[in-house]
Amino acid sequence: MEKETAKETVSKNFIEQIIEKDLAEGKYDEICTRFPPEPNGYLHIGHAKSILLNYGLAQKYHGKFNMRFDDTNPTKEKVEFVESIKKDIQWLGADWEDRLYFASNYFEQMYEAAVKLIKKGKAFVCDLTAEEIREYRGTLTEPGKESPYRNRSVEENLELFEKMKNGEFKDGSKVLRAKIDMASPNINMRDPVIYRVAHMTHHNTGDKWCIYPMYDFAHPIEDAIEGVTHSICTLEFEDHRPLYDWVVQELEYVHPPKQIEFAKLYLTNVVTGKRYIKKLVEDGIVDGWDDPRLVSIAALRRRGFTPESIQKFVELCGVSKANSSVDYAMLEYCIREDLKMKAPRMMAVLDPVKLVIDNYPEGEIEYLEVPNNMENPELGTRQVPFGRELYIEREDFMEVPIKKYKRLYPENEVRLMNAYFVTCTGCEKDEEGNVTVIHCTYDPASKGGNSPDGRKVKGTIHWVCAETAVEAECRLYENIVDEEKGVYNKEDGSLNLNPNSLTVVKGCLVEPELGKAESYDRFQFVRNGFFCADCHDSKPGAPVFNRIVSLKSSFKLK
Length: 558
Ligand code: ATP
Ligand code: MG
Hints:
- Helix content is about 25%, strand content about 25%.
- It is of the alpha/beta class.
- The chain folds into 3 domains: about 20-260, Rossmann fold, CATH 3.40.50.620; about 265-340, Glutamyl-trna Synthetase, Domain 2 (Glutamyl-tRNA Synthetase, domain 2), CATH 1.10.1160.10; about 345-550, CATH 2.40.240.10.
- The chain has a 7-stranded mixed β-sheet, with helices on one face. It has a 7-stranded mixed β-sheet with strand order 21-18-19-20-14-17-22, with no helix packed on it.
- Strand 2, helix 4 (about 80-90) and strand 3 form a beta-alpha-beta unit.
- Helix 12 (about 305-315) packs across helix 13 (about 330-340).
- The longest helix has 16 residues, at about 45-60.
- The chain starts with a helix and ends in a 9-residue tail after the last strand.
- The model is unreliable at about 1-10 (pLDDT under 50).
- The structure holds adenosine-5'-triphosphate (ATP) and magnesium ion.
- Adenosine-5'-triphosphate binds near residues 36, 38, 233 and 264.
- Its EC number is 6.1.1.18.
- InterPro entries: aa-tRNA-synth_I_CS, Gln-tRNA-synth, Gln/Glu-tRNA_Ligase, Gln_tRNA_ligase_bac, Glu-tRNA-synth_arc/euk, Glu/Gln-tRNA-synth, Glu/Gln-tRNA-synth_Ib_cat-dom, Glu/Gln-tRNA-synth_Ib_codon-bd.
């Protein structure tokens, strides 16, 4: 018992440690976390980490989890993204219950907060242009210069800010700035802009507002209004924390939230940044935000990943303060582990060639009982048709075998998986020398794939019955970026694309059961990998499968 408690303490991440300390000190009765996406694109695997982290903490400490759209920037936001984000978060298994919020619903409170700062002499309206503000800001080594408008009176500031709100000024002609310290070593504290004039239509508030708050001002207010206790964000905001703290302090919130930063999740050889995914979509390089080669959550779902595999992956990644890249192979490991027991093991021939069993009765079809998953008897069994004419993988036959080849070649005996032993007797070829039909004989006494007399065969191959096989399309994927060259081009920052990222294999032949596959049904195809019926293109009778992952990997969990 004692030992277990000790182990649990060690495995706590730094955010859990902070939360436990806060709870122990009685700082909060209950914690509240949030996931605050900007609705300007689809969520990706990195967001999954943030979602599951925030949701997981709320669960673990019996607190609350808020879903909040950070929609304070009217230029880039779209309703389409709001819907996709909600769907993705639900699919991942994070439940916000009735705690769905939109930052744009707080515009009134944000405006009042700005007025409060003005009244306290902590904010001023500034007429410098964007360029001048940049010049006045100073550099990392030199302090900034104060704006000539910095000492406007409270009355004048209130009046001007109200006029800004009433639309009396042109975009960019005036901003509201916090009055902090132009000599601060932290550039974010050098009188940052907190409101700008922008005559733009907002997807939620329409034309009501023509001033919009800046992120660094808006975010702490959103957190405070909702009663968020631990506002978890990624490392790039570390230098913004003093401003976050300044805002909640100056606005005198009774229970100020606090910001905690963790390292972003990066995956090797994939494109995460929303910006880059968007470009691939807009340039038509991929077929939409859910193209299975992407790592958007929609793409992972379409490809066949399960929420459980992503949860496991995020858990294995851990939470840290140091930026690093996780091997894509770890994500593959997680889906393999998850599907190993869940997915039925089926026979599908991706590159078929005909095999005729010359001593098998003509016109006869028999049904063999086959376990759906050897490792998981709970998945039951199915009846697989077998007959005189079958299809096997072209690579499972060699007229002249190479060294150590254990599959079918003249005179050699192999096991047809779950069926019979067969011995190859020869093959037919076309004019170009391609094998068109392979011939063999079977041993009726070896039914079920077991040797009748202790005879051993070295190879086992999979097959489908020619008469009942269903034609399918299989899509095989490689990384969208070129592994050798790296994700981004060193010279111009563009993406190094892999021209072979998608291989469409038509004319695959699969067992009849697979012909009935419905969207998102997942299977293991013997030897070929885990596959998932494509949610857009797969139809009963004409299935289309996405390969989620191949079966083998050199990846080992440390
Ligand atoms: P991107 O950089 O991919 O465009 P973003 O940070 O602009 O993402 P937001 O919608 O602002 O996207 O992010 C919502 C939340 O997700 C933020 O709290 C952000 O810190 C977090 N987040 C974004 N990318 C990652 C990542 N790679 N790993 C972990 N958390 C992330
Ligand atoms: Mg962002």
